Amino acid sequence: MKKIALLSTSFVLLGILLFVYRMFNKPHTNVKENKAYEHLSAEQLFYFFNRNEDSAMVVFSDQIIQVTGTLLTKDLSNELEPQITLKTNINNGFIRCGFKPNELKNIAKLKDSSTVKIKGICKGMNGDDELTLLEDKDIILSSSIIIE
Amino acid sequence: MKKITLILTTALSLFAFSNHSGGIYKTNTGNISFYSHTPVEDISAENHKVKTAFSTESGQLQFSCLIKDFEFKKALMQEHFNENYMESTTYPKATFNGKIESISSIDFSKDGTYNSKVNGKLTIKNKTQDVATNGTFFIANGIVNAKATFNLNPYDYNVKIPKMVAPKISENIKITINSDYTHNH
After folding, report:
1. What confidence score (pLDDT) does residue B35 get?
2. Residue A2, domain member (yes or no)
3. Which residues of A lie inside 8 Å of B (Cβ-Cβ)?
4. DSSP letter, residue B85
5. Which of A103, A143, B37, B62 is the most exposed place for a label (fewest CB within 10 A)?
6. What is the architecture, at CATH level 2, of domain B23-183?
7. Interatomic CA distance for residues A81 and B31, integer angstroms
């Protein structure tokens, strides 16, 4: 009887340890394997943040968003996180998508001014009205992948 | 008449030169990392989408970055950082508004290394504190690489850390800035 109790306790403890270990080492969100929470155009996504940043943060931040828009720039200067920007209908408003370095080849293939579909994790809107040198606004997507 | 022409030509040349080397330098791909060391645990994270610019005339230097965009090695650590300590949905940005003190001694038209004190106000979680550090500016082929480090105490910025976790988080977190600026035409 004592043996069974000891064995059961050991199994429970092992289970708890395994659970804690897996929680502690849980992987980052896999953008490729997860469905997008919302499909939006670059203009729509920018509009939501520009209209009310606080409520857009609650709805979109940390969510996987699929965005369709016109490629404006490719910025491959930061090797740690190559980036592209998509146009919006606001002059100083952009969607900035950051990629893992292994997406570099796919980014290089993108043609200027082409329509692209990107999936990434929405982080919020960068830029501040009070900082006069940083008046333009970027909606940030991270860990992005190119859909087409 | 010749004198007037000469003065006008000189003035125009000077204007053209100042227009070329002066103005605003900017990037949207700046890097900020932080490192917290304690005997219990080392914690670090990086952000590669920092928006920053400076004026070569006034020396004004500004940064803005999203707290949620700091990437940790461990996903759980990143989750705790955002949800429990930084409350980054409510306080999404960290901003810096300051000045490069010796901006006039930096020749942006000439490759080289220049040092200057940088002072300003850093705002995190709606709490603003004065920050002073030494910055190094490397100029090569029209690109200005700026590097600086300074330390901050999370308690100065209203970051509430539970007692149980406190031994894991340093009160002297090292912030490293490394950004490549290009002239903004």
Report:
1. 97
2. no
3. 23-29, 53, 57-58, 61-62, 75, 77-78, 80-81, 83, 85, 96, 98, 123-128, 130-134, 138, 140, 142
4. I
5. B37
6. Beta Barrel (2.40)
7. 10
